[in-house]
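Our preliminary data section would be incomplete without showing what the modeling component actually yields. Below, a chain of 122 amino acids is followed by its predicted structure, encoded as C-alpha cells that our downstream tools consume directly.
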Amino acid sequence: MDRGTVGSANRGRLQVETRTEEDSEIVTPVGELDHHTADLLREPLESAVEQGRARLVIDCSRLEFCDSTGLNVLLGARLKAEAAGGGVHLAGMRPVVARVFEITGAEVVFTVHDSLDAALGK
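Predicted structure:
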C-alpha cells in the first residue's frame, strides 16, 4: 500500500482512491482489477462498511479491466453493504468492463448508473 498518499493504494496495475461524500463512500479503482490486485479494492470496501458507510459508490470510469476475481470482490461488498442497510452502486462503466457484468448476469444485482454524478443524485 502506498502510505505516502492519503486515501489511495497502489500495486502496479491498480490504484484505488477513496473519499466520503455525504452518505456515500466513493471508491475509484484505476487500472486493472484481477486476481493479483483484488485485495486493493476489497480492503477499502470492507473498511467503509465496518466504519458505518454502507452506501458504496464504485466509480468505474477509470477501470480498464475486471476479471471474475474482481467481480467477486464487488459481489462480496454488495452482500456486506446490504447486510448493513446500504448497497453498491456502479457508475460510469467502460464497455469492456460492462461486458463482464453483462455476460455473467451480474448487472442485475447492482444498481448501475451512467455516471458518478447520477450515482450521487446530482
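The radius of gyration is 13 Å. The first strand starts at residue 8 and ends at 10. Preliminary results of this kind motivate Aim 1 of the renewal.
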